[in-house]
């Protein structure tokens, strides 16, 4: 099973995909290596594909839909991050 990317990694990748042409080209060629180039310590990066991405939305589309894509990626993590409740001692 693939590991889930951290929130920090998701934010960094989405920011770069919506603003940085060089990163976009690198990501399209090899998502794993492009994400690794961000210098974020996230073991889940190793589970990203290293095969080229055939189609990548343009920067404007990423910028406009960033919130929706971010929510989908974070929601996909939910089964792997159990909810804990801090209960006061009585």
Provide the residue-averaged pLDDT: 84
**Number of distinct beta strands:** 0
Number of helices: 4
Tell me the domain tally.
Answer: 1
Dominant shape: globular
Helix content: 40-55%
End-to-end separation: 41 Å
Alpha-carbon Rg, integer: 15 Å
Approximate strand percentage: under 5%
What does the largest sheet look like?
A: none
> What is the chain-wise order of helices and strands?
HHHH
Structural class: mainly alpha
Instruction: Report the uncertain regions.
Output: 81-87
Walk me through this protein's architecture.
The protein has 90 residues and is mainly alpha-helical. It has one domain. 50% of the residues lie in helices and 0% in strands. It contains 4 helices and no strands. It has helices spanning 7-17, 21-29, 31-36, 59-77. Helix 1 packs antiparallel against helix 4 (59-77). The radius of gyration is 15 Å and the shape is globular. Residues 81-87 have low confidence and may be disordered.
Element layout with pairings:
Layout: H1 7-17, H2 21-29, H3 31-36, H4 59-77
Helix pairs in contact: 1-4
Structure summarized in a few sentences:
The chain has 90 residues and is mainly alpha-helical. The chain has helices at 7-17, 21-29, 31-36, 59-77.
